[in-house]
TrEMBL record:
The lineage of its organism: Bacteria, Bacillati, Bacillota, Bacilli, Bacillales. It comes from Priestia taiwanensis. This is Septum formation initiator. InterPro entries: Amino_acid_transport_2. The keyword Transport applies. It is found in: Cell inner membrane.
Amino acid sequence: MNGNTAEKIELQSENTAVKNEEYLDPKKWNKQDTTWAMSLFGTAIGAGVLFLPINAGSGGLLSLLLITLLAYPVMYYSHRALAKMIYASNSADEGITGTIREYFGNKASIIFNIVYFSSIYTIVLMYSISLTNTTSSFMVHQLGMEEPSRAILSLVLVLGLIAILNFGQDITVKIMSMLVYPFIASLLFIAVALIPQWNTSMLSFSTASTGSTGTGYFATLLMVLPIIVFSFNHSPLISSFVVKQRATYGIKAVDAKTAQIQKVCYIMTFAVVMFFVWSSALSLTPEDLMMAKEQNLSILSYLANELDQPLITIAAPIIAFVAITKSFLGHYIGAHEVMRDLVMKFGKTRGKNLGEKTVNMMILIFVVLTCWYAAYANPSVLGLIESLSGPLVAAILCLLPMYAIYKVPVLAKYKGQMSNIFVILVGVLTVLASINSLF
């Protein structure tokens, strides 16, 4: 059999497979669409949302308004750009790493993995810090205990989190999935319960805090963009989402269908998160929110300490503890997979085939030591978001898809859209915010 005949038979087989494939009608809203909209919704609302009201409110009314105006378009257009980049790829089922390898080669995929790992692992370290602060605050303010040794408490918590993962990844993921919707319901409950505490201090603070100059507005914009990008990020799920829609509706309908599902999801996400943000910010003063920032606490822990409401005093820190634990475990699983691949590939370049147990032990020691040190040192969580996590996520979520659209021929049809300019500006300004925070 010659090459041409083989190619013809293969092409005929592919055509037959396409003809026999039964795609769902993309014009109808199906049960699967609801499932995916809710999955994206649950993933988009994580523990990062607990820090959004602090940055939003501590900057006064202007920062609150900017977040309200920018949250939906930043979330929608950036994740749409990433989805476009992935569903045009023939390697989408290998995740975003496979897509990068197809578009830009092996070296680019290795660089991407390093950046991707850095963005995830920074979040793991942040949640180690937050969990220690939440637990310590709860012990002191709610249980009336003396402040525990930070070195001992942080080590116990980090080891406890690692112990949970020993039950197995499947069980851990299942438990995290079960906690998503109770967490969202609890956010809505807290937001409603705070309504009697609303005050107008935010209105009188806005002019003094932000100034009336262009520099003041630009500085506020640089302050809020990293936390917006970070808080609503759910890029790891986009690959699975795109692959499933392509298999269900076909390559011709995947663009419109993913846009439809994402739009429904992000409207729900925006409504829930912004209600929580506004309710939390209006129930405190901007000075309170700046104090929460200085104390390195999530908004729920600070509310529990400051408000004289027994239900919130007990429920809020518990909700924060569960939410941060859930987010830590989820990001750790992602970081572990990338770290394992990087270590094994590095070993092979050195002529060493490292065993699975050896690699896992190396990762375990690295995670315990780094998370323990970060939790003990207690750097500012919002500072890490502004200087590291937000810009790294923006590079992956905003700048990478835009670079691909203007460099990869198969993505050329997405050039020239106004949303591209918006996504590029968000990415560039978020990276600038990192530089600004360092100096």
